[in-house]
């Protein structure tokens, strides 16, 4: 399998694409063709998560030998997940929640980031790269911690994370600022996720800077979903959930399902779209946004316009206006025409907006989009707890709210998988307030105790342990200082 850039004719093997992260022309790597997998349901239904991951991913990473890939997968999905199933599908009334937060950092990012370091290590070996890999990561809360945990103390790799200092939950911040590991660097920025991601992309594109650090023995890579090593492993769990529905007797072979995804950087929903391209029977992809509803507008009108307020919400991981992975979808939607993508991305950079030509509007029909504001998100957390006896985090609540809007708009009774992307305990203050209708008091750990008693759910051990950890990274920088900070870390040590 080869990978090519959405903006040009660069073609690479998967191992090279994994290391480079972002293409030199600023584009994102995509597989040159999507493998169709044979869906022998009887056989697949009984596969473990690992076996299914291997079955799907060997199509994308076929320049790894099969034993190596299988070993990487086995090491990734082990007892660092708190449940053997890895990604359980939980039925509550008529709702099916795909719980993707059972990994070490309690968010869906663990699903790919548990595997990605192993793939990167093998890719480095295969490409005979002796240089140290420096992973640059922009985060709105969850990717940062998952990447730090995944890469900590891995020889030959440094990881540098930038998060919006005023745009993450207290638990998310503590998870990152207490990170151990000699090779980890964490910075809050005075700015938002888009500022961090823009700076990281500019650094990737700076030829002079890259030549300079090359001489010092470094090469840059990314742990965001712009990297195929982050994106492709996310396809697996949509197949897994479908097979689980079959096994539970909720659907029959070949029946269509909908998938709802709370969406920020468009990676998780794109993985579902790719699953559909591979042959999974998906009817609608339901894109759920918070008040930063740029994707809702785009999927309804074809106009993507980031000239608007940036809101800090109670679902901070989705506080994003520039959704990187939309470029991969656009590439597909516009008949794989790199010229069109270059023009759209130029418009976005120069004018802050672009418009999809009328002739490609049909491609948006795979999607339904809507959004929930903070008030609706709170009500949904409360509703789910009171009516389903199920505790959900604000991002999952956005998804549930949008799914209800979809039901109202369409009356579609297709069985629907809701991606449940984070543990409610990562957003304990918002969840506490939503359920009790009281202002949160004290610190996050007292609130977690209260919430646990109130809801009879247990506090994940990662949160309990966090209380005793020392803050090791307390620097907050201006968004304009990101370059200098990276230079400083890499200056010939
Ligand atoms: N929601 C993310 C933002 C970055 O998205 P990614 O999937 O591209 O890493 C976060 O929590 O950081």
Task: Please render the helix and strand layout as text.
Layout: E1 2-5, E2 11-13, H1 14-20, E3 29-31, H2 41-45, H3 49-57, H4 66-76, E4 89-92, E5 95-99, H5 109-113, H6 116-126, E6 132-138, H7 142-151, E7 157-164, H8 170-177, E8 184-190, H9 193-205, H10 207-215, E9 218-222, H11 228-231, H12 236-247, E10 257-262, H13 267-277, E11 282-289, H14 294-301, E12 303-305, H15 326-333, H16 338-351, E13 353-355, E14 367-371, H17 374-388, H18 394-410, E15 416-420, H19 428-436, H20 444-455, H21 461-466, E16 476-478, H22 482-490
Parallel strand pairs: 5-15, 6-7, 6-9, 7-8, 8-16, 10-11, 10-15, 11-14
Antiparallel strand pairs: 1-2, 1-3, 4-5, 12-13
Helix pairs in contact: 1-6, 3-4, 3-12, 4-6, 17-18, 17-19, 19-20
Bound molecules: ligand LJ64HWYM.
Structure, briefly:
With 493 residues, the protein is an alpha/beta fold. It contains 22 helices and 16 strands.
Characterization of the model:
This protein is an alpha/beta fold and 493 residues long. It has a domain of 255 residues: Rossmann fold (3-Layer(aba) Sandwich). The protein is built from 22 helices and 16 strands. The strands form 4 sheets. Strands 4-5-15-10-11-14 form a 6-stranded mixed sheet, sandwiched between helices. Strands 9-6-7-8-16 form a 5-stranded parallel sheet, with helices on both faces. β6, α7 and β7 form a beta-alpha-beta unit. α3 crosses α12, α17 crosses α18 and α19 packs across α20. The longest helix is centred in the C-terminal third of the chain and has 17 residues. It is globular, with a radius of gyration of 21 Å. The two termini are 37 Å apart. The model has no long low-confidence stretch (mean pLDDT 97). The structure holds ligand LJ64HWYM. Ligand LJ64HWYM binds next to α7.
